[in-house]
Amino acid sequence: MRILIAGASGTIGTALVQQLSGAHDVHRLVRRKPAGPDESYWDPSRGEIDQAAIEDADAVVNLSGAGIAGGLWTRSYKELLYSSRLKPTRTLVDAMIRAKNAPAVFISQSASGYYGDRGDEVLTESSSSGATILADICRRWEAEAHRAPSPVRVVTPRTGIVMTRGGGALPKLLLPLRLYGGGPIGSGQQWWPWITMTDQVRAMEFLLTAPVEGPVNLGAPEPAQVGTIVADLGNALHRPSTLRIPEKVLKVLGGRLAYELLLVSARMEPRVLTGAGFTFEQSTSRDLAAWVRASLAT
Fold first, then answer.
1. CA 61, CA 42: separation in Å to the nearest integer?
2. Which whole-number Å values give the CA distances from 82 to 79, 134, 269, in the listed order?
3. Residue boundaries of the structural domains of the chain
4. Average pLDDT score, the chain
5. Rounded to whole angstroms, how far apart are CA atoms 280 and 203?
């Protein structure tokens, strides 16, 4: 399968390219002069793309988007969070509409932020969207993807908190634990829809051919409360995990960013994914802790 990836240089993109290479013909979209036959130029800010890259692709994977935690949520950065997702998705879909040979599948990233802050409510793919900024971004992001022409099969993975040593939440949890200063974030009772990078890229490869479309929750089948995740990581590292970071402190330091990134609760379950036959390698927070311990030993 020839797979065209937008956002291949990001944390998930890099891991996905590694997962797919060998079994598939992986092609990257880049915003500079292409350095080889496996790269094609595009400039989504101007709606420009090498049309041949779309015509030749069996599948397109869209991972474009500025990092949610890439800066304080000033007005300009919030605008960037929107534009860096909507413009690339629009550029890809418009190219598919023009294509004589559109790809069979379009996997366009979304996020668990779609659901907003929902407490203990169990969230499936049919659950309504939330009232946060990230929820609004995800709604608009998915709407752009679903403009793709028939018969393109559109999948919008609502990815949870991806656990990887390469960035994101995990290193920020591990550092204070290693220094004997770790503990729950806020109340510790908020649900985190976590997923290891191993299962993230396996699931995305699975979705290339699985007979599903529309939203797909990408989170471990047993989401966990933050306090449980931190406690299990602490046990794996043989470190205490009792020093709580108060919610008020987080909001003073990080404002809206801290709230939407760390304090919202999304008890998300991957019912479409497991119903299609996907099996997770890490399903519980204890599995996560064992996976982290093993990765630290290598």
1. 14
2. 5, 9, 26
3. 2-297
4. 94
5. 8
Q: CB of 288 within 8 A of CB of 222?
A: no
Element (H, E) at 294: helix 285-297
For the whole model, what pTM was predicted?
Answer: 0.94
Top-tier CATH class for 2-297: alpha beta
Phi then psi dihedrals of residue 33, to 5 deg: -65, 125
Q: How would DSSP label each residue in 253-270?
A: HHHHHHIIIII---EE--
Tell me how far apart the alpha carbons of residues 212 and 272 are, in angstroms, rounded to a whole number: 8
Q: Which amino acid is at 295?
A: S
Tokens of 237: 């590292």
In angstroms and rounded to an integer, the radius of gyration of the C-alpha atoms of the chain is 19
Q: In 3D, which of 102, 100, 101, 125 has the Cα closest to residue 115?
A: 125
Strands (E), 144-183: 153-159, 161-163
C-alpha to C-alpha distance for 38 and 24, rounded to whole angstroms: 12
DSSP letter at 277 equals T
Percent of the chain with pLDDT over 70: 100
pLDDT tens-place string over residues 68-124: 988 888 999 999 999 999 999 999 999 999 999 999 999 999 999 999 999 999 999
d(CA 107, CA 154): 6
Rounded to whole angstroms, the maximal C-alpha distance in the chain is: 59
